[in-house]
Recover the amino acids of this structure.
């Protein structure tokens, strides 16, 4: 299995995540652009919220949790450059 590439990245919710096994969508900076992934979380996360990827699964699915941007940062996130 390849090493996780999305773990620790932050993104933005583009379709609300209902929580539990329900799926929403997020945009993540990846590969020099932005890509959309299906996302799930333990609780609901609303549209336009910042999220942190805590796990990734086959089928372009990631587990996320709410993320608080760093004050004064334009990205507010510890995104890795790949």
């Amino acid at each position: 299995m390849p090493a996780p590439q999305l773990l620790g990245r932050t993104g933005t919710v583009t379709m609300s995540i209902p929580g539990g096994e329900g799926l929403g969508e997020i945009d993540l900076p990846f590969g020099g652009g932005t890509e959309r992934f299906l996302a799930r979380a333990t609780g609901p996360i609303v549209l336009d919220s910042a999220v942190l990827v805590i796990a990734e699964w086959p089928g372009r699915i990631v587990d996320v949790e709410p993320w608080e941007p760093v004050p004064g940062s334009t990205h507010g996130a510890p995104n890795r450059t790949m």
The mean pLDDT is 87.
